[in-house]
Every structure is written in C-alpha cells, then in structure tokens.
Amino acid sequence: MKKLVSTILILGIMTFSGISALAESAPENVKEKVQIPENVIELRDDIKDMNENIKITRDSIKDIRDSEKDSFKSQADEIKSRIDAKKESNKALKDEFSTTRDSFNTLRTELTQQVKDAKEAEDKEKLASLIEEKKATVNQFQTQKTDVLSRKANIEDEKLLFQDLKSQCKNHKDEIKPYLEAIKERHSMVKSLREDAKTAMSSQDFESAANLLSQILELKEQTYNDLLTIKSIIE
Fold it and tell me: What is the pTM of this model?
C-alpha cells in the first residue's frame, strides 16, 4: 500500500514538472499572429479586383484584334484574288490583241505593196479600190483596238481598295500606340512598387505598405482606363 502511494506521488510530481516546463517554454515557441490593418487589406482586395477587370478587358481586346486580323486577311485575300483574276483576263486580251495586230500588220504590208504595184502599173481603178480597202482595214483595226481597251480590267481600283484597307489597320495601330507605350511603362513601375510593398509588409511597416499599394492601385486604374480607350478605338 505504501509502495502504491509512493508511486502515485512520484507520477504526480513528474506530471506537474512536465506541465511547468511546457508553460515556461510556450512563449518562445509560439509566435503572435500579426494583425494586418484594415486599409491594407482593402487596398489588396481593390488591386485584386482591378487585376480581374484588366484581365477581362485585355481578353476582350485580344478577341477583337484577332477578329480584326482575320477580317483584314479575308478582305486582303479577296482583293488579291480579284487582282489576279483581272491580270489573267488582261493577259488573255493582250494575247488576243497581239494576234489581231500581227494580222493587221501583215495585211497592211501586203496592201501597201499592192498599192505600190498599182501605181507603177497606172491602174487607177485598182489603185482606188486598194486605197479604200486599206482604209477599211485600218478602221477595222482601230475598232478592234478600242474594243480590247474597253474590255481591259481596271486593276487600279482594287489596288486602291487594298491600300485603303492597309491604311485603316495602320491608323488603328498609330492611334493605340501611345496608350500601349504608357501601359508598358506603368507595368515596369508597378513591378518595382510591388517589390517595395512586399518588403514593407515583411517588416510590418504597414504605413509604407499602404502608401505603396495606393500607388499601385492608381497606376492599375490608369491602365484599365487606357485599355477601355483602346477597346473603344478598335471596336
């Protein structure tokens, strides 16, 4: 019985000693939870919301520009096809006219020689007939030439359409270029400010962190507004 009581007392002393040891070591092992100010939390949430708005707008702009590129390519291909078709048509007309001109030159040379022979033979009746035939041949050739020229396809109109299409795309690019450059510059500024904000948060300098986050939010709002402007330009 005495042995049992002694054992219980010893266990009790050991248990008490263990609890005391834990109680003494607790402050060293358990870190206090840092309380982040409400304004810092709100700024981080606002930046997160702004990032989402920027992403949505960027995606929308990308879709519009992809569609614009597809439309440009489709229209450019269509114009090029019409130009190629007109070039083929004009080539066929050129070949046709070349054959007609060769026939005319051959006939005119023959008639010229016949006229010369008639003059030498002093055959006035034949000479008059040959002169009339030569005139009729020239008139016929001129008529054929006029007909070929009237059927020649106008490629210049298609070229002007293509140039106009290219100008529209270039004007869009030129118009949005300043906004894109400003966005790129702000992006670099935000990266630098973000690193500074991380450092401030790590050192629990919440006042500096709030100031830096405010600057980041302002820059992102400017970027968002520029993206909306770009979207309105290209729509």
Answer: 0.64
